[in-house]
Amino acid sequence: MAQNLSNDVDPLYYLHNFNQLMETISTLHLDLLRPQDLKFLEHYRQLETDAQQLYVRLICRRATFFRLDKLAYPEIDSLDTAALQLAEHELLKINPNLAAVDISNLLTAKELKSVLQLKGSSSKSALTDTLISQLGDTAVEHSVWQRFIPVPVLFPHCRDSLERFRLIYFGNLYQDLSQFVVSDLGIMQFESYPLDQNTRAFNRAEDVDRYLLFDQINQQLEDSILPNDEQFKILLCPAHNQRLELKRNRLIKAVGQRLERDKNLSAATELYASASLPPNRERHVRTLFNQQLFRQALSRCNQLAEQPLSADEEVFCQSFTPRIQRKLGGPPVRRVTEQFNSEQLILDDDKQRVELQVITHYQALGYDGIWCENELFNALFGLLFWHQIFAPLEGAFSHPYQQAPLDFNSPAFSQRRYPIFQDRLHQLQGINLLEEISGQYSEHLGIANPFINWKRCEPDHISLLCQRIPQHKLLMIMEKICFDPQAYRSGFPDLFLWHNHSDDYLLVEVKGPGDQLQNSQKRWLRLFDSCGIRYQVSWVTRPT
Predict the structure, then answer these.
(1) 279-301 per-position pLDDT tens digit
(2) FRET label pair with 223: which of 4, 290, 383, 488, CA 20 to 30 Å apart?
(3) Cα separations in angstroms, 187 against 178, 239, 298
(4) Whose CA is closest to 392, among 412, 426, 415, 416?
(5) CA–CA dist 394, 387 (Å, integer)
(6) Is the pLDDT of residue 187 over 80?
(7) Are 517 and 509 in contact (CB under 8 A)?
(8) pTM for the full predicted model
């Protein structure tokens, strides 16, 4: 990434960014650190600039071991001096023990072939096997491996502390220091929100430990290793921290699905019963049903129906309850065939996208329009509910580079904001949406928002939407998104059309040959039917 930086960016950007992270950790999160973390901070602060630069350069790379002769950082005056100072402060080991695989990784195939004194052609893999046969598969001391690598090798310490810092700062383990560069280069602008102990992701050191344990369990699952008995017990315990509870529920889903595939329904049921979020609550009902525990399944399904946490959970309760009742002697379950406003269009294949063909068809009927899919209504929601989305709730913000609150991808996002979403909906009933949209657009243009793609956010199109669709009907759409943003931010019709000589408008879902309506699309069409929003499903076929 450094090679592509603008000339305007400080060449020591990586050091300043790392030091900014360390400063935030030291001032805002000191109570979450372990003794070894505090020791790292103390030793790091004592380093001269060159040593700090070398350390940050190394820990930002994926490798574990580094040959000193392969390092080239022009901004560091003396790599040897910097390495020695890091070693003195216990932040780096010079010439650590190396396994045969580590030695192989530090050598090119040509170098490895030379030190093994082999002739002919051999793959790197075969050469590595030869090296393992000579040295064994355990790490060996410098006196043994120096004949293969006659230069110093560096091994930076404290990666576990750095992982903890990264989790505390970002609230996750998938972001890293490259996020700073995105902001420095102006690639993204971020909303301003308070960063304090009320909004940070973790408030107890134990929660950080537990999150890291959950990450370890997740890595085990990638290797097809199920949690052991102790880990399983920890998974069963709900967390008071919303970030941790979201992580726990995601693990419950992954482990539960594995247990179901292994036909261990009793263990899966126990796990799902402890879950607090969809879709695990639905899986709990299904595993009870699959064990023929129909009365328990019905009781649990009724509980979910009283207070569903997602659109999918709401639909599940409506469709699955009759199936359970049937098993208990109820009437047969009848499938209902839904009918939506539809038309059949026979259009020649002119190699355009079928959505553009339908726009052309309607232009001949006096309409104009855009192919917007989900982006138009999502942008409307993002602008109208900007301050509610970025409300400084507990655990919502951990660092200044967030496109969305930390709980955005969780049902907790709408649950925790229910009161302020309802207040905003009530407020919007009595104001002019066009004026509100104009003000919000001017105030927030270009700032990252999970609902807005600024490259396709045209204020004129949003204004047309507000002019053509009655305000109370638009607010019914907004209310659905408030209930479950993850489900209702998708499935909108492909096209928004407006008539050039009247107030008429039309939302059109385009279906080409062989296409079918998705559940997310049917959800919106049902709402449009119930509140009188004009829509059409255009089924396009080709001439025979």
Answers:
(1) 999 999 999 999 999 999 999 99
(2) 290
(3) 12, 36, 51
(4) 416
(5) 15
(6) no
(7) yes
(8) 0.84
